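Here's my example:
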Amino acid sequence: MSIFGPDFRIPRRRWLRTFALTTSTSWVLGKHWTAPLLADIQVASNPTGALFLARISDHPALQMDYGSVRIGTSPIQSDHYPSGLFYPVLINRAPNNQFYALDAQCTHAGCTVPVFDARAQYSECPCHGSRYGVDGRLLRGPAGFPLRQFKMNFDGRDQLTIELQNVQGLDGFLIAVSKITAAANRLELKFLAFQNIQYEIWTRETATGAWQPSSFAQTPTGAINQTVFTGQDDYASLYVPIVPILRCAVLYAVVMRTQEV
């Protein structure tokens, strides 16, 4: 299982920051709840794993016992497999502020396990009926193993930190997800832009597609017709249109332009 891994087919000397448009799904008071999230992916100092950061306040289901959310980079297809390369992370809340972070890939045939059903007290795989407890333990086969569990830390207030150890392609990354508050159906990509350095926004609309330069606006409602931004030793905010979240997974990369000097 891997999730939110940036692809360095953009040369490392040009890559600055990667953002991913992601989804979160859960059941709240018996109603299906889905929201878009923006994942900010940064190089971190830990070379043996990745840290995944999420806020409880962004997910109503996690504000109650036995609430559950599933966060992933791409939609789940009708055959119950992700449309992209990566399986979602399943986050369940148990009583006494106990949280569990699980790989949503069923250990039987690889279908995607849904969020935890608080009334039934299990998650049931839609393919062959395997059931898992709130902590990922196996309750019923045909699966023979529990869901993979990631180490989770709760700061006692709002922040969840998940350690994605031994996940291929994610060594040394810090991934922070937050709920999108979109204005004019746009995403704000915020990053530190240095004086006299030119920046571009590149996008990729499938998990394995090629990166392509993309236009952006410099204000929340300005024309999306800019292709190059010059830094001024301050944080910059560039605005890109939101691609329909149910159609594809989207990665955004902020890159520095280079030239022979």
Notes: The first strand starts at residue 15 and ends at 28. Residues 1-13 have pLDDT under 50 and may be disordered. The CA atoms of residues 161 and 252 lie 23 Å apart.
